[in-house]
């Protein structure tokens, strides 16, 4: 297969996994930028579009993307230097505070970096450093960004969802995680299943139970993992969402009408299903058949 050439010959599984963990720390730092900036980029584009359509002056004319401007403290505007931006280490050295104004820095930044490192280590440990291992890292990084963006904004951007879906189909054109046939049907069934649930719920209650981004995310999971893992994916995601939702209602006094994103539970389940989903599918399909 053409992906066989991607194999990286490094001595031993542990050293490779440790290198993947270090790489995951660096990527985690970039993911923090994506999680923070991508929704703002989308809002700015929308604001400019509305202004342009109404013949008004564009409200956002400065350059704002994933690279520009440089990261800065939201409290004092101090630009973060390279030495202040070393994943996890800089946060610990600065004791979680801005080097200039000493304002508190969210602990989520080092947590995302650490999570990215741990997941990278685990996936390479499981899949090795060949095509499956490298592809699984791409899969994980997309899901981390999508989960936290959805958690913050209840948005699952097409800028991440659609490339994730197409990457899954491309990878599985070589049968890396499942057959191409299973990947294509996974994408179709993943989208249609949640689309159907959405419309049934809306017809019965008159309310929208989820967004279209959830359909696309499940389609992407189906494209990566194959259609056979989708029943377990929906089941585990729904159970996790229900448990967390009920806990928030009863213990955190969260209102029943307050919307709760479903994307993070799909993403967490997807991360579990890529390495273990086929085994689970064989077991429950064996029982059903």
Key features of this structure:
289 residues; mainly alpha; 9 helices; 66% helix; globular; disordered N terminus
Written description of the protein model:
The chain is mainly α and 289 residues long. α5 packs antiparallel against α6. The two termini are 33 Å apart.
Counted by DSSP, the helix tally is 9
Mean pLDDT score: 90
Helix fraction bin: 55-70%
Principal-axes geometry comes out as: globular
> Structural class, please?
mainly alpha
Low-confidence runs: 1-12
Question: SSE order, as H and E?
Answer: HHHHHHHHH
Gyration radius over CA: 21 Å
| Number of beta-strand segments | 0
Q: How can the largest sheet be summarized?
A: none
Content of β-strand? under 5%
Gap from first CA to last CA: 33 Å
Please write out the topology:
Elements: H1 13-53, H2 89-93, H3 108-127, H4 131-153, H5 158-172, H6 180-205, H7 212-225, H8 230-251, H9 263-288
Helix pairs in contact: 1-3, 1-4, 3-4, 4-5, 4-9, 5-6, 5-7, 6-7, 7-9, 8-9
How would you sum up this structure in a few lines?
The protein has 289 residues and is mainly α. Helix content is 66%, strand content 0%.
């Amino acid at each position: 297969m053409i992906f066989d050439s991607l194999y990286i010959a490094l001595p031993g599984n542990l050293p490779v996994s440790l290198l993947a963990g270090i790489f995951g720390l660096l990527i985690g730092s970039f993911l923090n930028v994506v999680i923070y900036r991508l929704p703002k980029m989308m809002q700015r584009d929308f604001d400019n579009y509305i202004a342009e359509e109404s013949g008004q002056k564009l409200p956002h004319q400065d350059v704002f993307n994933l690279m520009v401007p440089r990261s800065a403290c939201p409290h004092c505007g101090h630009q973060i230097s390279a030495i202040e931006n070393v994943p996890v280490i800089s946060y610990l050295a600065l004791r979680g505070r801005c080097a200039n104004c000493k304002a508190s820095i969210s602990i989520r930044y080092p947590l995302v970096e650490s999570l990215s490192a741990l997941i990278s280590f685990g996936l390479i440990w499981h899949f090795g450093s060949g095509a499956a291992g490298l592809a699984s890292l791409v899969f994980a990084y997309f899901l981390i960004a999508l989960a936290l963006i959805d958690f913050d904004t209840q948005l699952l951007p097409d800028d991440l969802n659609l490339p994730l879906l197409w990457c899954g189909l491309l990878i599985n054109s070589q049968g890396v995680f499942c057959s191409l046939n299973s990947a294509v049907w996974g994408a179709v069934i993943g989208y249609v299943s949640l689309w159907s649930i959405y419309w049934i719920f809306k017809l019965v209650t008159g309310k929208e139970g989820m967004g279209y981004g959830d359909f696309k995310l499940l389609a992407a999971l189906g494209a990566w993992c194959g259609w056979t893992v989708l029943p377990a994916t929906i089941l585990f995601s729904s159970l996790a969402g229900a448990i967390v939702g009920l806990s928030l209602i009863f213990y955190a006094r969260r209102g029943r009408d307050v919307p709760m994103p479903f994307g993070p539970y799909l993403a967490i389940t997807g991360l579990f299903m890529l390495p273990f989903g086929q085994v689970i599918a064989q077991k429950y399909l064996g029982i059903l058949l």
